[in-house]
Specification:
about 100 residues; globular; alpha/beta; three-stranded parallel beta sheet
């Protein structure tokens, strides 16, 4: 995935600032598990709520992973890539 930097123990404002800085350079994904992550999820190109901690977090996210398992996040990424590939390369016969 090309992850080169890790940030932890940041305030909600710090998270938003980091996401906005990165989003100015490339599409961003923010994975969060708490209400304090909601603003950064909305600032990101795509926000993912990890577990169901609050309604606010779930509403701010573009996707919600109900289980707090990185394996489920990996599955979400694979499904998204497959979906994007099928939209870019539709079957030639019978495609609407």
């Amino acid at each position: 995935m090309g992850i080169t930097d890790l940030h932890s123990a940041k305030s909600p404002d710090d998270k938003v600032a980091i996401v906005r800085k990165e989003a100015a350079q490339a599409p961003t994904l923010f994975l969060g598990d708490g209400i304090n992550d909601a603003p950064a999820m909305q600032a990101a190109t795509f926000g993912v709520a990890f577990g169901v901690q609050s309604d606010i977090t779930s509403e701010a996210a573009d996707a919600v992973i109900l289980e707090t398992s990185l394996g489920r996040f990996d599955k979400l990424i694979h499904i998204a890539r497959a979906s994007a590939a099928s939209r870019c390369n539709p079957p030639s016969a019978g495609w609407p």
